[in-house]
Specification:
Elements (H helix, E strand, L loop, with lengths): L3 E2 L2 E2 H10 L7 H12 L4 H11 L3 H10 L11 E6 L2 H5 L2 H12 L12 E6 L11 E3 L2 E3 L4 H12 L7
Helix pairs in contact: 1-3, 3-4, 6-7
Bound molecules: FE2/S2 (inorganic) cluster.
FE2/S2 (inorganic) cluster (FES) binds next to α5.
C-alpha cells in the first residue's frame, strides 16, 4: 500500500511498524502509536498493519475493536467521554451530556466539523465518588456542573489547562 489513505501517509505508518521491529507481539503498541498520531484507525491502515506484521487481518481488527482507547472513526483533537453510568446518571449526568451537546452543537457519538471535539457517552469511568465525571484525552474531571462544562470547553478552546 502506497501514498495517502484517509489523509494518513502510509509511509508514516510503515515507520511506526518498523520502529517495533515489525514484531507481531507489538501489535497493541503499534495501534496505540497510530491512534495517538491520527486520532483513529482507518480500516485500510489496519490492513496495512496486518500485512506488514504478517498476522491475520481478523486479529488486528479484533484488537482494534476490543479496546475503547481505539476508534475506527475519526475523533476530535479533544475526545470528550461523558460518563453515562448509574452513579453519574443519579447525579444528573444526563444534564452534563446535554450541555456538551448544546455547546458543541453535535450529538453524542459525533465530532465537530472542525475536528476539534468528539463527544462520547461511556460506561462507568471509575470515578463514581466524584460524579458526574468526564474524561478528556485521558484526563479526568469530576463533580461536573453546567458551569464546569462551560469553563472546561472554554479552556480547551483557548488551549489552557484547568484543574481536574
Ligand atoms: S458511574 Fe460515572 S464514574 Fe462510575
Amino acid at each position: 500500500m502506497e501514498g495517502i489513505v484517509n489523509d494518513i501517509d502510509t509511509h508514516s505508518v510503515d515507520r511506526i511498524i518498523e520502529r517495533s521491529g515489525a514484531d507481531p507481539e507489538a501489535l497493541i503498541g503499534i495501534l496505540q502509536d497510530i491512534q495517538a498520531e491520527w486520532n483513529y484507525l482507518p480500516l485500510p491502515v489496519l490492513k496495512q498493519v496486518a500485512e506488514k506484521l504478517d498476522v491475520p487481518y481478523n486479529r488486528v481488527w479484533a484488537v482494534a475493536t476490543f479496546y475503547e482507547a481505539f476508534s475506527l472513526e475519526p475523533r476530535g483533537r479533544h475526545h470528550l467521554q461523558v460518563c453515562a453510568g448509574t452513579a453519574c446518571h443519579a447525579r444528573n449526568g444526563a444534564d452534563i451530556i446535554r450541555v456538551f451537546e448544546e455547546e458543541l452543537m453535535i450529538d453524542a457519538g459525533q465530532t465537530t466539523p472542525d475536528g476539534e471535539f468528539s463527544l462520547e457517552c461511556t460506561h462507568c469511568l471509575g470515578g463514581c465518588a466524584v460524579g458526574p465525571t468526564v474524561m478528556v484525552n485521558e484526563v479526568y474531571y469530576g463533580r461536573m456542573t453546567r458551569q464546569k462544562v462551560l469553563e472546561l470547553l472554554d479552556s480547551l478552546r483557548k488551549g489552557k489547562e484547568i484543574d481536574s
